[in-house]
Amino acid sequence: MTMKTSTRQVDGVTIVDLSGRITLGEGSVILRDTVKDLLSKGNKKILLNLGDVNYIDSSGIGELVSAFTTTKNQGGELKLLNLTKKVHDLLQITKLYTVFDVKDDEAAAVKAFS
Amino acid sequence: MSAHRVSYTLESTLETVNSAEEVASRMAADAGFGEEDIMKIGMAVREAAVNAVLHGNAYDPGKKVALDVERTPRDLVIVIRDQGKGLEVDKIPDPLAPENLMKTSGRGIFLIRSFMDEVEIHPSPTGTEIKLIKHVHGNPGDGKEASQ
Fold first, then answer.
1. Interface of B with A (CB under 8 A)
2. Contacts of A65 in chain B (CB under 8 A)
3. CA angle, B33 then B47 then A99, to 5°
4. What domain count does chain B have?
5. CB contact under 8 A, B47 and A58
6. B105 chain-A contacts, CB cut-off 8 A
7. How high is the ipTM of this complex?
């Protein structure tokens, strides 16, 4: 049930590999704290790899929006990578798919950061 | 062994949200719904439980959440009741409106309506009851009876 994250650096981009569920409570808090920590350390190019995230609730969606907005407001960029079908569909019906910059190839996603 | 109807009285905690989702998902699986519908039913119930625990009962330990899940030949019917002040449904903004798209909350009821076939919300000064219905027929798993 819990969400796990690990971060790695590729060409100046911080890739956050997430797995599990981003839901109200622990999952949302972990995502929030991870992004907040990265930004505080000056890591402003953030790629969230959601390849192993198979479930997000409305709280998790709100947390993704918050991470996107917070990063942007601090002059950074946040992109999403490898959406599962469930997460893809969820972002489609909430009309957020076109708001987020969504990628499906890690190398291309890293290059896409300005 | 699967029941046709289960009823629980749950605390106003995050654990209740997870429990409600698990119960509904299990009943949906027993009713023969496919994986995608099970996920949708589970998420709808989860969102309704979040509303009950957070916005209805506001984590008040003195207030409970009632959960009923019933499987009829035609439907899976889930009823969730809280003991809050009553949800003001008309005041919930449209989460798809451009001005609301980047808000970090307010999508729960929208997701519930998106994932279920019928949704009834009955607010009152002593609490809100939300009834969620998913039709069994018309699904790939239609006709698959749960073992008794």
1. 14, 17-18, 39, 43, 46-47, 50, 54, 95-96, 101-105, 107-108, 110-111, 114
2. 102-104
3. 100
4. 1
5. yes
6. 58-59, 62
7. 0.90
- CB-closest option in B17, B96, B105 to A95: B96
CATH of the domain at B114: 3.30.565.10
Dump pLDDT digits (tens) for A66-88: 999 999 999 999 999 999 999 99
Q: Which of A69, A74, A73, A18 is nearest to A43 (CA)?
A: A74
**What gap in Å lies between CA A1 and CA A11, rounded to an integer?**
32
Structure tokens at A31: 């995502």
User: Rounded to the nearest 10 degrees, how much is the dihedral formed by the CA atoms of A82, A87, A91, A92?
Assistant: 90
Q: Among B74, B73, B83, which Cα is nearest to B117's?
A: B74
Q: Which stretches in chain A have pLDDT values below 50?
A: none
Mean pLDDT of B130-144: 71
Domains of chain A (ranges plus CATH)? 4-111 (3.30.750.24)
Residue of B nearest to A56 (CA): B43
